[in-house]
Design brief:
By secondary structure, the protein is α+β, with helices and mostly antiparallel strands. Helix content is 27%, strand content 34%.
Length: 216
């Protein structure tokens, strides 16, 4: 099928699954997120913890990629990665990020902005050792975001370490661990008919969450 401008312009859905009002949302955005995330789990959506992580370098140039949510509590939203990757380098220079969840089947979106900090070593260690052995070894051998000559060398290193660490505890590499995004704003978006979407935004002001409705 040929991709044309007309085809793209005519791709549209009218959203009518639900509504979102100021009265029904929880006063705490973390609890509201947990409510929506539970609904995504109940709906058996494929990997509902998939989220877009947007960062920027020191000049303000943006970058975005998909990562997986691996923890949420009153402190914030956690994920794990290679500290020497592009996102790791950008977060070191500019420790701010935006997260976006999109659950198409529920016609819902959540957008989170906040400051980013590394998780403590103990937390990263615990999560690292909860991962499958293949994922642990992959974190060691992959120089994430760097140019490599071929895939064969990468797979060879994996095979060597798989044999080397057979029946042994694999040490967490120093270049790998977790981050937490501590939110300063969280927006909940519910698709509505005729593009008049419901948008409820929480902003952290002087330590308290203020709730406002945004125009669609």
């Amino acid at each position: 099928m040929e991709l044309t401008k007309e085809m793209l312009q005519n791709l549209r859905q009218d959203y009518s699954a639900a509504e979102l009002t100021e009265k029904e949302v929880d006063k705490n955005p973390i609890k509201q997120f947990e409510k929506w995330f539970s609904a995504a789990l109940d709906a058996q959506l494929y990997e509902p913890n998939v989220m877009t992580l947007a960062t920027a370098d020191k000049t303000g140039k943006p970058n975005a990629r998909i990562v997986l949510l691996k923890g949420v509590d009153e402190q914030g939203f956690s994920f794990y990665t290679n500290y020497l990757s592009t996102k790791g380098k950008e977060l070191k220079k500019n420790p701010q990020a935006c997260l976006v969840f999109f659950w198409a089947e529920l016609q819902r979106q959540v957008r989170i902005e906040g400051k980013v900090e590394k998780l403590d070593k103990e937390t990263s260690e615990a999560y690292f050792h909860s991962r499958p052995q293949g994922s642990q070894i992959g974190a060691i051998v992959s120089p994430q975001s760097q140019v490599i000559s071929n895939r064969t060398d990468l797979e060879k290193k994996v095979e060597e370490l798989t044999v080397s660490y057979q029946d042994k505890t694999i040490p967490k590499p120093a270049h790998w661990g977790g981050y937490i995004v501590k939110p300063t704003s969280i927006e909940f978006w519910q698709g509505r008919s005729s593009r008049l979407h419901d948008r409820i935004k929480y902003d952290l002001v002087n330590g308290k969450w203020q709730i406002n409705r945004l125009a669609p």
